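Please check this today:
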Amino acid sequence: MADEVSVLVEGGKATPGNPLGPALGPLGVNVVQVVQQINEQTKGFAGMKVPVIIKVDPATRAFTLVVGRPPVAALLLKEAGKEKGSGKSGTESVGDVKLEAIRRIAEAKGEDLFGKGPEEKVNQVIGTCVSMGLTVDGQDPRALLKERIAKRSAT
């Protein structure tokens, strides 16, 4: 059975130090090779935290990587060009995200989101905008959600 190490690393910037080195060292794998592969596979997520699982075969010391996707909140912040969301999401807006970008995020996160259809997943991402203080195409995301739900109920 393989040993597993789960870490959260910044895309393209993993190092042999904490948390990888201490976790992988006892397993006997080449930490530098692991770091190089992680950085290669996560470079597209620069500036975002990415979940990575390293599976190590104790007999051969061979490893495989399972690179996850950044959280929806991180993807939204990247689209909005912001470092963090609003601390006062009900009253303060910190940025705007295009509905087209929200659709891309919902599609990219796919199975990570609950809901049966693509529109329900889009609604979940819009809901995340509410709690982060982001508007959607200049509109309050709560109003947009009500509009989308009413339109769906009418059909």
Notes: The helical segments are 20-24, 31-42, 72-80, 99-109, 118-132, 141-154.
